[in-house]
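User: quick one, fold this
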Amino acid sequence: MKASVAFSVLVSAAASATPLQPLVERQGSTGTGPYPAKYTTDPGLPNHTIYVPQNLNAVNGTMPVVVWGNGACSANGLSQANFLTEIASWGFIAIASGGPNQQGSTTAAMMKASIDFASSSTSGVFAKVNKNAIAAAGWSCGGVEAYEQAQDARVKALGIFNSGQMSEDGTRKVVPYIKGKPVFYFLGGPSDIAYNNGMRDYRALSSGVPSWNGNLPVGHGGTYDQVNGGKFGKAAQLYFRWVLKGDTSVSSFFTGDGARADGWTVERKDLDKIKV
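Assistant:
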């Protein structure tokens, strides 16, 4: 069984327990950032959902990109709408695999399609895209999809959320070969079904790879469905602001006691090697 399929099976019951609703019904706000965000689609990138600031003209500077794999590899691009809207509200383009309320499952190839499109498109919502600042990230099964982008030179950072390689063999074949880019893990504590996987992966990273491992005791479901994505949404936007926008004013959340004060149990390695 492929890793992505296995993770999809593990989380399918949890995913089906919460019926998916349209974005407008699920979201308490348009994000906490300076650019209230929305979701949209682009005919040039079918089967994807794009989260962007509502007023692109108001965005100061260029917009980095976060390509996202949904939990359970769900093809519903609204699955983590609150969380992705929060990221976009800080001046990012977040691209979720799968269209709004689409049925079925995603693949790692769909995430690569997001990277390809963001790297080449310069019109519409991509008029201010920073194609040199792309991160691959995902929750659970989506995190496994993000791992498959690790060797893409266009990907500058990885975000592994409640996820990890499904076996020690998978870890040995993937994780030690990640070089030259930060890898941050956002896990749900010992009750998270991906806890052991994520912790094993974090410890298997090669020396010199900037990495951080945070555990919030909320289990595998994280806080993605909370208003603005809850504490996972806050930690994610701070991470991407630091490593993709070069905003060192937020780095102390990870290098200091900010995350711990927010309830995370933290491990970290070589954060001084992050280049912004």
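User: anything notable?
Assistant: Residues 144 and 269 are 22 Å apart (CA to CA).
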